[in-house]
């Protein structure tokens, strides 16, 4: 599908050209990425093997951590390696693969956050019907639909990118391949394609954010009938979700709901939602969640006990 291209590779300019700052980028983002992988892996393993975390909320949290790990992996390793490379070259095929992965796992995270909001809405607003509505079969179907929806969203993003003609220059003023930087390099009028991308990614980001905020307003309003203890527990869970929604959707809306205009803060905004948010999510969901922390302690004790018996 590569059409009228004389460009077979791109050069990523990264976050900085300063040699000293490049070393700082390497150290900072290596730590952030390792923290993201380890933190999300801990959540995945804990939920997978803990008997106390079998509710739909943790079922969805499992997939959110999986999406976080993959979402960060789509950009962070290349940023880390490129920070020590003299020439940051990415081939055309690698670039398009990165666009696909970035939007696939990013969209998956959006859909899982919506499913988590649905779960909290049913649990708080319809508690008596919760076991019937949110049974394992229904949750599995919803996750499968989220994977399918993410795939079609990503296909809708990458197919127009594959049709863009690139005839030079091939310098991408970013640390990864994404839609807006690629539009600037295309040898054609990109107004309609940008409009298509905004109506796709922009609509998903903005629409999902509005839906999530409305759902949590309804949930918080419903808590007035709860006891003090029940209200405290529900508030703790919902607050964690709201924090994640705000820090993820804010930068996404800024990036994908505007014309293809470059701003100085674009790269830092992208860093925040592609690397920062996946790093923060495990901290938010473990530090504010006693059940997850207790389950981790139990699994750790079991591991130590089994090792000591050998």
UniProtKB/TrEMBL annotation:
Transmembrane segments: 24-45, 57-80, 100-118, 138-156, 201-223, 235-256, 268-287
GO molecular function: G protein-coupled receptor activity; olfactory receptor activity
Keyword Transmembrane: yes
Sorted UniProt keywords: Cell membrane, G-protein coupled receptor, Membrane, Olfaction, Receptor, Sensory transduction, Transducer, Transmembrane, Transmembrane helix
Pfam families with a match to the protein in the record: 7tm_4 (PF13853)
Membrane topology: Multi-pass membrane protein
GO cellular component, one term: plasma membrane
G-protein coupled receptors family 1 profile domain: residues covered: 39-285
Cell compartments where the protein resides: Cell membrane
SUPFAM superfamilies recorded: Family A G protein-coupled receptor-like
Family to which this protein belongs: Belongs to the G-protein coupled receptor 1 family.
Function field: Putative odorant or sperm cell receptor.
Name of protein: Olfactory receptor
Gene name for this UniProt entry: LOC112912541
């Amino acid at each position: 599908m590569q059409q009228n291209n004389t460009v077979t590779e791109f050069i990523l300019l990264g976050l900085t050209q300063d040699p000293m700052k490049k070393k700082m980028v390497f150290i900072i983002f290596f730590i952030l990425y390792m923290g993201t992988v380890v933190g999300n892996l801990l959540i995945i393993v804990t939920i997978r093997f803990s008997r106390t975390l079998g509710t739909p909320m943790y079922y969805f949290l499992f997939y959110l951590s999986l999406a976080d790990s993959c979402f960060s992996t789509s950009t962070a390793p290349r940023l880390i390696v490129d920070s020590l490379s003299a020439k940051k070259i990415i081939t055309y095929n690698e670039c398009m693969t990165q666009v696909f992965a970035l939007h696939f796992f990013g969209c998956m995270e959006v859909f899982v956050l919506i499913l988590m909001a649905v779960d909290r809405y049913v649990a708080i607003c319809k508690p008596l019907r919760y076991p019937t509505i949110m049974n394992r079969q229904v949750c599995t179907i919803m996750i499968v639909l989220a994977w399918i929806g993410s795939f079609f969203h990503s296909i809708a993003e990458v197919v127009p990118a594959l049709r863009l003609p690139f005839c030079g220059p091939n310098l991408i003023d970013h640390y990864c391949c994404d839609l807006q930087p690629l539009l600037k390099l295309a040898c054609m009028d990109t107004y309609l394609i940008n409009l298509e991308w905004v109506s796709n990614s922009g609509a998903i980001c903005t629409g999902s954010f509005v839906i999530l905020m409305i759902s949590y307003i309804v949930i918080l309003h419903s808590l007035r009938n709860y006891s003090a203890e029940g209200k405290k527990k529900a508030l703790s869970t919902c607050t964690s979700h709201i924090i994640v929604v705000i820090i993820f959707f804010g930068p996404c809306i800024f990036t994908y709901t505007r014309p293809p205009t470059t701003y100085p803060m674009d790269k830092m905004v992208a860093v925040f939602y592609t690397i920062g948010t996946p790093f923060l999510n495990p901290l938010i969901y473990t530090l504010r969640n006693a059940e997850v922390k207790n389950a981790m302690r139990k699994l750790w004790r079991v591991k130590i006990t089994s090792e000591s018996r050998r």
